[in-house]
# Entry
Amino acid sequence: MRINLLLCDTFPGLLPSYIQSYAEMFANLFKTADAGIETRVCYPFLGELPDTDDTKSIYLITGCNQSAYDNTPWIVTLGEWIRKAYTNKCKLVGICFGHQLIAHALRGKVVKAKQGWGTGIRESTIIDEYSANLFGDRQLSLLYNHHDQVVELPHNAIRIATSDFCINEAFRIGTQVITFQGHPEYTLPYAEHLLRNHSAGEDPQTVETALASLKTKVHKGSGVAQWILTMMDY
# Structure
């Protein structure tokens, strides 16, 4: 079993010493769901993109410090790759920036969110019956770290979950595409590290509220990993 990880950022200077790499965070996440999963990494920002002829493996597009609507050449190229992969019936997963870029590439709309920084653990309501049956309840609770949001979904996309802060917390297109604004790969210590060490310029109350959420709410990252694999018959 293989997940092709399209790593869109390595976050230099952000990772604490106990995390080897951003790719390792995803490998650890999916091993909690299936110890036999192989993770293969490529780097779109270095011009590396996998072939789109494998319809059995999963292609996962990760988070990034840039925006899906930027005209940066590698982002434009990755958007073109997404459209090709979608046409070729590849299984696509998007996380945060990946969620936004898949939406943008497939003619949805992504904007800078007037709500400000989405961070900490946020709870949203699952409104898609199919997904609710797979996940086991109607509450999606994940760690977040974003300033942009998907405000219009691609054609044929189904909104999976919604909240007052973000209307499109997750969406799917059939069982071929599933995306999440949140970060299932994040851990509580890493989220706290970001909030305490990399939140300069952000609203102090937002930071304090996010830190409090780490103690009072539940991060369901491993459940989302299993959800992805189950939905895609992996």
